[in-house]
Amino acid sequence: MPLALLALAIGAFGIGTTEFVIMGLLPEVAGDFQVSIPTAGFLVTGYALGVVLGAPLMTLLGTRVTRKRMLMLLMGLFVVGNVVSALAPFFGVMLAGRVIASLAHGAFFGIGSVVAADLVAPQKKAGAIAMMFTGLTVANVVGVPLGTFIGQTAGWRTTFLVVAALGVVGLLGVAKLVPEQPKAEGVRIRHELAAFRNVQVLLAMAMTVLGFGGVFAAITYITPMMTEVAGYSDSSVTWLLVLFGLGMVGGNLIGGKFADRRLMPLLYVSLGALAVVLGLFTVTAHNKVAAAVTIVLIGALGFATVPPLQKRVLDQAAGAPTLASAVNIGAFNLGNALSAWIGGLVIAAGLGYTAPNWVGAALAASALVLAVLSSVLERRETGKGRVVTGGSPEPAPVAAARH
């Protein structure tokens, strides 16, 4: 794998750390600004919404510059956002800093996916995408626990300064290691938007929302579930999240390896198994050992869908993939936000802390149905003599010969 992927992975590590570390530092931030925990929770919600809105916005703004330059600008924006957060004199400024940093998130992963895929041979594209996303998964194993520890011992502001420093390293890595790729000629905003007329692109994004949304329906409420149902202590939640992160790392690497060979079968297996495991979590959550094993499986099966879904979008929007790739990253965060909200509704309805697991199972099962539908439609198009590649069906050789 090219060294350029290391630079992309470092940037992904910093972005993943800043996204999730706030969850472990909410009490410290709330206390410092003298706001309630629910109010401090807007730092999580605001970031997620910033990713959803920023992914298409920043990508469209970057259509007139090279991808390398845009990646550097995004990492610069990420650094600025985290510095603003670290130095914020009051809560509103802190929230603004979080939103600024989030604007770089979706576009970085979206454009980075395109760059990573272009760096390798066609049969290794999903593996290259997975390598970049390894930075995000490792962030959950190393960056988030370490950032939480730094914040609890040296102050949460120090955590965000350290994350900003990671962003500087990522920016320098992109500048030094990522090769200049010529700007695609003839590709304009209308070409990027045209990808969304392809039903296969939309189906892949819907699978992203539902599939990984199923994961977050359960994981968002992992703390009360593990402490109130499984019987773990509050301090044990950190290492349980590390187990979840390890599962994500493994699932990401497996997904990257097999997506280049059997993409749709991989989605069938991972989404189907994810639905089953999430359903079983309502039972295994009552046992400490079984709950820990289930958490690893949820992380692995959930992230095994990420490289194939990202590659699916790139393949179906091959003519102008950048915007579609970035929007698909926003789809992950949209799924996270929606599933966490629905999970909260079922808990508020008095169904218990394990109820979000059923929500997650239903979402993952719905994603599986869409995956099957996508394959059926694709085979139907092929049967009509039209081969679907890159989102723009091409005439079959016989039909083309008639012209």
CATH H-tier superfamily of the largest domain: MFS general substrate transporter like domains
Mind telling me the CATH class of the largest domain? Mainly Alpha
- Based on the coordinates given, report the CATH architecture of the largest domain: Up-down Bundle
Please state the overall shape, judged from the principal axes of the Cα atoms. globular
The structure class reads mainly alpha
Number of helices in the DSSP assignment: 17
Lateral arrangement of strands in the main beta sheet: 1-2
Helix content: over 70%
Oligomeric organization of the protein chains? single chain
Task: Write down the Rg.
Answer: 21 Å
CATH fold group of the largest domain: Growth Hormone, Chain: A
Number of structurally distinct domains: 2
Tally of extended strands?
Answer: 2
Which spans have pLDDT < 50 for at least 5 consecutive residues?
A: 386-403
N- to C-terminal separation? 43 Å
Average pLDDT, to the nearest integer?
A: 83
Beta-strand portion reads: under 5%
Keywords: Cell membrane, Membrane, Transmembrane, Transmembrane helix
Transmembrane segments: 42-61, 73-93, 99-121, 128-150, 156-178, 199-224, 236-254, 266-283, 289-309, 330-352, 358-377
Protein name: MFS transporter
Domain Major facilitator superfamily (MFS) profile: 4-383
